[in-house]
Amino acid sequence: MSLKLLKQGLNGSKSLTPMWREQPIKDRYDVVIIGGGVHGLATAYYLAKNHGITDVAILEKRYIGRGGSGRNTTIVRSNYLTPEGILFYDESLKLYEDLSQDFDFNIMFSQRGHLTLAHTDASLRTMRWRAEVNQLQGVDSRVISPDEIKELVPFMDLSDHPRFPVMGALYHPPGGVVRHDAVVWGYAHGADKRGVHIHQLTEVTGIDVEQNKVVAVQTNRGRIKTGTVVNATAGWCTLIADMAGVKLPVETRPLQAAVSEPLKPFLDTVIVSGTLHFYLSQSDRGEIVTGASVDPYTSYSMDATLGFAEGLAGHILELFPSLGKVRLMRQWAGLCDMTPDYSPIMGFTPVEGFLVDVGWGTYGFKTGPVSGKRMAELIATNRTPDLIAPFKYDRFFEGRLVGEKGAASVGR
Amino acid sequence: MSTKTKDAINPESQIQNPKSKIQNRLSSHPSHKVDYTRPIEFEFNGKKYTAFEGDTVASALWAAGVRVLGRSFKYHRPRGPFALTSGDTNAMVRVGDEPNVRPSMKLVEPGMAVESQNVWPSLNADIMSLTSYGSRFMPVGFYYKAFFRPKALWPTYEKVIRNAAGLGYVTTDTPDTYYDKKYEFADVLVIGGGPAGMSAALSAAKTGARVMLLDENPYLGGHLAYERQSVDTKNGGAKAYELADQLAQQVLAHPNIQVELNTSVFDIGYHLWVGAVKEGWTNTDPDSIQNPKSKIQNPEARLLKIRAKSLVAANGAFEQPLVFENSDLPGVILGSAAQRLMHLYGATPGKRAVVLSANRDGLQVALDLLVAGVQVSVVIELRDQPDSDLVTVLESAGVPVKTDSIVTKAQGNKGVRGVFVSQAAKELPLSPGGIKAIRGTKEFVICDLLVTSVGWTPATGLLYQAKGRMDYDEQRAEFLPAHLPPKVHAAGRVAGAHSVKAELLEGEMAGLNAAADVGFGKGASKKLQNEVAKLKAAEPVRTSALTYIPGGKKSFVSFDEDVSIKDVRDSVAEGYKSMELLKRYSTLSMGPSQGKYENANTMALCAEANNQTIPETGTTTGRPPFTSVPLGALAGRHMEPVKYTPMHDWHIARGATMMNAGLWKRPEYYGDPAAEVVGTRNSLGIIDVGTLGKLRLYGKDVPKLLEMLYTNKWSKLAEGGVRYGVMCNEEGIVSDDGVTANLGGDEWYMTATTGGVTGLYQDIEWNLQSGWDFDVHAVNMTDDYAAMNLTGPNAREVLQPLTDIDLNNEAFPYMAARQGTVAGVPAILMRIGFTGELGYEMHVPAGYGLYLWETLMDAGETFNITPFGVEAQRIMRLEKGHFIVGQDTDALTNPFMAHLDWAVKLDKSDFLGKPSLVRIQKRGVEQKLVGYEMLDSNIVPEEANQIVVPNPDRPIGLETIGRVTSSRYSPTLEKSLGLCWLPVDQSEPGTEFTVRIRGELHQGKVVPIPFYDPDGKRLKS
Lengths: 412, 1021
Ligand SMILES: Cc1cc2nc3c(=O)[nH]c(=O)nc-3n(C[C@H](O)[C@H](O)[C@H](O)COP(=O)(O)OP(=O)(O)OC[C@H]3O[C@@H](n4cnc5c(N)ncnc54)[C@H](O)[C@@H]3O)c2cc1C
Fold this sequence. Notes:
The structure holds 2 protein chains of 2 kinds. The longest helix of chain A is centred in the first third of the chain and has 21 residues, at 83-103. Chain A starts with a helix and ends with a helix. In chain A, the strands form 4 sheets. Chain A has an 8-stranded mixed β-sheet. In chain A, strands 8-2-1-12-19-18 form a 6-stranded mixed β-sheet, with helices on both faces. Chain A is α/β, with parallel strands linked by helices. In chain A, a hairpin with a 2-residue loop joins strand 9 and strand 10 (213-219). Helices cover 30% and strands 23% of the residues of chain A. By secondary structure, chain B is α+β, with helices and mostly antiparallel strands. Chain B has 6 domains: 1-8 and 321-454 and 544-552, CATH 3.50.50.60; 31-175, Roll (Ubiquitin-like (UB roll)), CATH 3.10.20.440; 177-283 and 296-319 and 456-523, FAD/NAD(P)-binding domain, CATH 3.50.50.60; 556-623, Arc Repressor Mutant, subunit A, CATH 1.10.10; 671-878, CATH 3.30.1360.120; 917-1020, Elongation Factor Tu (Ef-tu), domain 3 (Beta Barrel). Chain B has 25 helices and 50 strands. In chain B, strands 8, 9, 12, 13, 14, 15 and 28 form a 7-stranded mixed β-sheet that branches. A 6-stranded mixed β-sheet of chain B has the order 41-42-43-40-34-44. Chain B starts with a helix and ends with a helix. The structure holds flavin-adenine dinucleotide (FAD). Flavin-adenine dinucleotide binds at residues 34-40, 59-62, 66-69, 71-75, 203-204, 232-236, 240, 255, 257, 291, 334, 336, 360, 362-366, 412 of chain A. The site of flavin-adenine dinucleotide has 40 residues of chain A, from helix 2, strand 13 and strand 17.
């Protein structure tokens, strides 16, 4: 038993302290981070931890983890397609492996293996492409046959009965799922402990720019002076960028997800099917956690829809026909900040002091740690670390897109 | 004593018949939904029990004396039903192969096998229940605080945690049964068949509106169905259940009202698009069409998708449990649950009861219990001035009513054996903060049943989904509708009405208003509206949001998740202060009931812990589905569309191996693909290319459209000409390719890739309608035309006799298109060749496809015509060095990289992708798509194998510089060849490279393409 639990068990609630404190809001900070999701919080955490920069405020409109960070389906993996993508995602995965110990808080990173199914020869080819590049980058990833899949996932129908029979899969053993809220709270705790101020119910309403330089942000709780602002607001990022006069090639689309009622463990791996547009895993609580592609329209609505549930259930039963009597328990939606090349936008913008860490689309939970670490490094050193150089804002004006569309779309 | 109360305690037939032969059952009564003449045998945990038709699993087992149905999620505490409603997920069971069944909703059927869940090894001796003893070391969120040191042990811990969690189990052999869906339409949709709902349905129906009334129960009546006291209506008094029957008869008889029972609404979307699920057909259902001879079966469940024009939510309220120590013990039930047991199912709730009451309903239940022959030891009344009429009756029947006391704890092992009662330290009524007991006043009262009636929470979840806003009503201590969107109405308990008269009138008002919303009648009169307002205002109010009795350690706010009062406070102390964070950390309201019986209490406790008021604390977001829905019902018959070409059956008869191509099925090969190649190259072959995208374009501006879509030039393409073109997206990435023919007379014919055509057609339409002001009409003919390619050196000889088109090489040269007839069928012919041989691609109306194909097969017999599939075509196109968009190109490929410089005309005024391509051309490209052959022709790379160079800094000492995109052994050239990406400076013919194939390194070299017939002599001859 952990010492913490023992203490709590013996001393009762008196030993409890808040994970993060409510601090009085100051009228200036060295760094202001907008958005209390995993990206904003991780940036603050590594600023304080790795660079000793602690005069930092997180401004969060509602409560931390209210955005994608508390709504995602928690898939973490690094079997991407491009060498630059793989290096980046793999650093994040490695960071995740140690976060529980870093935080002294169990984020329940469950490296239970990740399967991306191929239902067509074209997708089988893409899986092989990813496996080949992954192997060269030292990432554990290989294409496996339907027989091998059956061993891992006895519930899957691997016959030729489904409309698009499974032809193989990309298997990525270190991939898995994390308890998303724990990551948010862990970063908040670590940042708070090192002096970062976390201000919830604090909405940014404007950004003051003078001579192309950020000087302050406006909030519902007053004006805060600062020379460095980080936009980490994901689905809302264009609204914030507009305040600074920066145009982002981002559109916001809802992404829906759902869980079933809790069941005894029957599924160990994470399953993703691009062709059938769904993915699922089973949480430690026993729920089937499942989702699909982004909604086909732009919107700020976080409402779940019946049509989505119908389509999702149909696709699940195509491959898992024995789950018909399992009940869908809860549906929700989050917002995704989609870029044209399914890769993020990180770092400097044309406005001095206005930094972005956005464009995280459907895949930005897994990158929280590496993004935070590297954004912190960028702020501390005032130069772009190599690892995130491919994701520079300028690439859209130079025609240098990143080729992750194939690996990032439904794959989370 | 008022007549009303006399009536309640001493009606003729209500005293239990002492001669009743059925154990634990009350004598039959018109309010019962069970039929004692129809016994049903079923099993629970392997033991046989008898139920009666109309019983639910919960009522039958209760009547049989079974209190514990399962174990709880975290501490494996014994649990049984406590509410007997759909929201009662306290002890879900397995029925047959269905996990997580709500026993209170499931009707017993003959032979049904019911099992407990989450028990090990058995319900009675559950080892995991020992966790309960360690519960102080398993506080809220304990798993966040442990199990991660040492790191290597976490996977082991996780396994244990996973096995302990979860409720029901699934098996691989559960069949995929039959579910269906139905679309419904209603002028007025009424949710809930209680007094308000039935009244709304009737008043709306009388205006002529088409009404649909849904209820999740197998009967109408709502709370009236399980109540026997007299109630007030505008036409005088009536017994509750009789009123229910009268209203139900009117509703069922009304031609304008469609009633769906066993149907729960779970989703209200935009524009009143409503999802409901109907379950619970039973073998005994008179509606059942389970005729073994008929193929029609009752579905396992049916999804109703309802387009409602207006809506009345009359779906009632949840009776609230009070939180105190061991309030989760089986035998502690809600007042309404006791009434349901007695009055719907004739089940004796217990022998000796204690009643805990904070409203009139509680006293009424105490009376009902007496009437049913249950001994009521004491009524603990939490109000200081309980309804004196009922108190008098109770006291005259010898039941003490204590107004200065509280129940502090239920005692028992697997069921209530008694309760502790103490004097209250504070004066009643209570504040939300609860009251302490006075030390030393504790007293043990023996009982096997504790019934609590402390208040109601409106079931506003659906109204939230409909985008209603609820405000906290301090007087009633309820969140009530404050602002509802247009065409949405609420009536009855969900809207805060509690007297039957108010419910009926509010229902009438809502029904009239909903009908008026959609053009029927004039809506409710001012008088009616005023009367409703007056009645509601005059109703007794709840003096406080009573939530819990302090002091206990095992006082569970959430039964679904075993979250205690202490857990709520600890969570807040740890910083999870807002309802949303509290919910996420403590898992309150995350269980199967989604918090139906815990949200209100959570809110009150959260407010208290934060020193806030309830409105300041606020609610959490109510998320769909309102009640959980089987995946099968949502999926329906989950039909996945499939497209067949007209020649499909022919291919099958010929033994073709079929493959998916988008939604289509295509022959991959009929036999040996290499032989198909040789046959075609040497004489004649034919392939079904009907899956190609096909568009007809009409209008004088078609050339302008083509100029915008394609990167090359089109304005000079003469009538009868065909041209190949490439399309790019705005980023300058190759998105599709194909040929387009000028058929003359402002008619053009375009082909596109199988996968790309739907998107292309949408883009064309989008642009034509929103920006490009062109005189063009585009029609997607993909599914309307059959297409086949007759190809090989003998193609002309075979085809000429069948067609009126002159096939002579001068009259119909390569890259030309002609219209005419083939075998009497109108056809578009294009002389193009993916295969590299003389070839005629023929497009004919789909209905003629098979006929033409068979005719060509017959005609080609003398030349040994070979039907070939996709695989042979892939080989032949590769021998010609043609690339395939999406296989050889990817999300970063621009035309310059794929040797398509010739096809990009940057001097055109505009086209899709031009600005990007201008920039890309300036910058130059880094990679090129080239042809290669392997030095060892026996080595055939897998497509997607990487081209590598040594780099000691990389994990396995290799760095990728390119990749193979297409690879085949060429039967014609007897070489292993293909296409690959390489850096520009290594793309010159003759350059050697290393490719990694299944982990081994092999050599290849760049060669010029086409590999086969480089001058295209065969194609053009
Ligand atoms: C359903 C779903 C499933 C997903 N599944 C996965 C997955 O499996 N794996 C994966 O890697 N990724 C997944 N994602 C994507 C991932 O969740 C996001 O990319 C990631 O959480 C983004 O984190 P963030 O910190 O940048 O932004 P968020 O967590 O969205 O945080 C942004 C914050 O900004 C705040 N904010 C907005 N406007 C203002 C303002 N004006 N002032 C102050 N604060 C403001 C918001 O309240 C919000 O809390 C999924 C997303 C969704 C919606």
